[in-house]
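# nightly structure sweep
# worker-07 picked up a monomer target from the shared queue
# config: single-sequence mode, recycle default, output format = structure tokens
# input follows
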Amino acid sequence: MGRGRLFRGASALPALLLCSGLAACGGPGEEAQPEPAANGDATQADATGNPERGDWLVLWLLADPESLNPITSNDSASNQVLRWFFLSLLDLDNETLEQRPLLASELPEISEDKLNYTFRLREGVTCSDGTPLTATDVLFTIKVIKHPRVNAPHARNYYESVRDVVVVDPLTVRFEIKKPYFRNDLVLGGTQPIPRHHYDPENLLGGISVAELDDFDNLDEGRKARATRFAKEFNENFHRNPLGPGPFVLRDPEADYSTGEQIILRHREDYWAPNNPKLGDAWVDRVVLRIINDREAALVALKSGDVDRIGMTPLQYRINKNNQPFHRRVATKIHVSPGYTYIGWNQKNRIFRDVRVRRALSHFVDKKNMVEKLLHGFGIPVESPIFVERPEHKRNLPPYSFDPEKGKALLAEAGWRDSNGDGVLDKEMDGERVDLAFEVISNSGNDIRRDVGLTVIDEFKRAGIRATFRAVDWSIMLDKVKKFDFGAVILGWAMSVMVPDSYQVWHSSQAVPGGSNHVYYRNAEVDRILEDYRVEFDPALRKVLYDRFQEILYEEQPYTFLFMQQAISAWDRRFHGVTWYPSGSTDLLEWWVPPNLRKYH
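# output follows
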């Protein structure tokens, strides 16, 4: 699974997907063509000359970011903004997907027992205010992530194996590990340092070690009070003032961030690695993120030149596939961008605690028909959260059948029947008569999720289930999800092409307010599997563990897994350097515009 900020080429932590149209895989195998043609696909085969700095890159966001706090945010809109401010110690090579140094000057020195990882930072790296980035900032960043009062359970779980962090010298930092974790090279290398002087100007965490924060309750009262004040201020005060070593700045948050309209990021004139995309720089002078909460309006903006890149829906692509004027201006690419869409059943709601109810509801969902009708064939049904191209994916899980009669039988077995003849199934629970009734929510502006919701509630109603669907604003929906304030939810997770770790989403420790286990799924065997998997270095044995993990999810249906989509990217043809890599992504840092094609000066 994957969160988009840690690595440009392939991310490492899961993030909630705002637009299911930007997720992932399967479907018709259409490939890009080198020249504008009737099918409209294009590559950069016609790009000539050397990259030069200039022009703006105008991107589309379906909703405002939840927050621009680099540690506490965990939604795709935030990730799409923050990627321009923060860089990781190591990056992934776009071609090979192997790790390479970015903020670090070299790959880490790893002890034979895998209990010590030593990183050396590059000399001359500075934050956007001119302050050098040092090993102290790396230490501070881990303190923030490990701090139990900081709202970052989605990130903290990956650092559970970190016992302490030691500053060896101003540019060298050593991670000391409690127990081996097979993905520590990815997780530690994916650390994105944030500057201590900006995020903790009073140095409230000074004199408190990572190990002591890990044992927070035993801190002495004075340091606990300081650490508590830090967490409160950090959680509340950094939603619109990011500062990091990346190539862009939000120069004036009041003027450059207009809620519901746009975010303007300006290139740093003093960037420490100028004109070097491999070290984080970009060729454009500005990145503008336009917030358009309607996908049809976003397509209109692309056609008019007000936006430079969007993700098209399958229907939009089909309608415009043979539109030659459109393809003279716009290039398109159908590509793999791993992620999946699901219906999550909130098990804090007593209705969904019975596994028979969740299984029954899944039998009312016709995934195959959704792929054919809603995605126009641009996707595949899925039965698990593991990317279908990964060896850990269990390939022999049979499709969960669309079988309304079987669903009705399971509900009857679970004691649901229409006792009063009103057409709605009911059952006595906790001493009261309860209708089988709930609301399904999703984010507004996403037509595919809306159509999924309307389709499933129609099928539920035929079975005597009183279900409703409501689309809500992205920020409102995230708040509801974080607080378990919903019945069922249609959402998506971004995934990674790298080796997976599903702990963040499925371990019971993550079923907390703000955690990624927002359906409150708890299973002792799954917990043991996820814990054992993290310390198993043999890929074959990890495969055995994850086969069983996927079997349990299949049996218990905490999600009704729906489908993975093919992503359809569309962008303005004035951009050169648009290369599609094995990860299924393109590197926006490499995009550039020849002087004669520039729009903005």
